[in-house]
UniProtKB/TrEMBL annotation:
Pathway: Bacterial outer membrane biogenesis; lipopolysaccharide biosynthesis; Carbohydrate biosynthesis; 3-deoxy-D-manno-octulosonate biosynthesis; 3-deoxy-D-manno-octulosonate from D-ribulose 5-phosphate: step 2/3. It is found in: Cytoplasm. This is 3-deoxy-8-phosphooctulonate synthase. Signal peptide: none annotated. Its main location: cytoplasm.
Length: 272
């Protein structure tokens, strides 16, 4: 896809990777605007094409008492406000065909969660909105098999999609990124590396997913070296108290430093 097709995206001629970044879930308006303002400032300064990410609801929870959201329309309106206030595109994940129709009224990119990417009806519903679709590779799927998910979008007459690697299950409680999959999936379309979800440690006995945020920089650097088109990072100013996925999110204070390092690596690679 041509990322210029995403409304309001900037700095596409900078030679940089693009970044999808924001909190795991929309917890409220103040937190979303606070995070978005910082991310917009950093990405503008570094000339990185930026899409603000936030889940309007969380359907894939380990426990019934886990946080699922503040209300669908309320959260979607916050995403819409972020877009209007800062002039940036937004992305959110969807879980049902009805979600696709509803969310398309508020955001620019519809994300298919990894555990749902084989659901043909959901992928088709997202593609038929005409929005850009982010297909997250299933933790249980090979890179080669993602060509079929991509073809479903193309068969709907929608050429605007990206494929995101978010790691592969290694045993019961660990995720591993097989970087051989990046060039494979680049043959099908635009590729993204979901750095933070790739460092999840799911299926903990507590029912709360763990993570390895200390490895975020390592995985992100490797992704840029391997040639991904974009980076996906969940970030929060208080990960320890975030309502979802706090164990593997990047602290917002570290975002700028990481982006500077990744931009320097990308500039070096571009010379070759």
């Amino acid at each position: 896809m041509n990322i210029n097709n995403i409304p309001q995206i900037k700095h596409t001629d900078s030679g940089n990777f693009f970044v999808l970044a924001g909190p795991c879930a929309i917890e409220g308006e103040e937190m979303a605007l606070r995070i978005a303002e910082r991310l917009v400032t950093i990405t503008n300064d570094l000339k990185i094409p930026f899409v603000f990410k936030g889940s309007f609801k969380k359907a894939n929870r380990s426990r019934v008492d886990s946080f699922t959201g503040i209300g669908d329309e309320k959260a979607l309106k916050i995403l819409q406000k972020v877009s209007k206030e800062f002039g940036v595109p937004t992305v959110t994940d969807i879980h049902t065909n009805e979600d696709a129709t509803m969310a398309a009224e508020y955001v620019d990119v519809l994300q298919i969660p990894a555990f749902l990417v084989r659901q043909t009806d959901l992928v088709v519903a997202a593609a038929n909105t005409g929005k850009t679709v982010n297909l997250k590779k299933g933790q249980f799927m090979s890179p080669e098999s993602m060509k079929h998910a991509a073809q479903k979008v193309l068969d709907c007459g929608n050429e605007n999609f990206m494929i995101t690697d978010r790691g592969t299950m290694f045993g019961y409680q660990d995720m591993i990124v097989d970087f051989r999959g990046i060039p494979t999936m680049k043959e099908f379309g635009t590729t993204v590396l979901d750095v933070t979800h790739s460092l999840q440690q799911p299926n903990q006995t507590s029912g709360v997913t763990g993570g390895r945020p200390d490895m975020i920089e390592t995985i992100a650097k490797a992704g840029i070296v391997t040639g991904v088109d974009g980076i996906f990072i969940e970030t929060h100013f208080d990960p320890a108290n975030a309502k979802s996925d706090g164990a593997n999110m990047l602290h917002l204070d570290y975002f700028e430093g990481l982006m500077k390092k990744l931009v320097a690596i990308r500039q070096t690679i571009n010379q070759f």
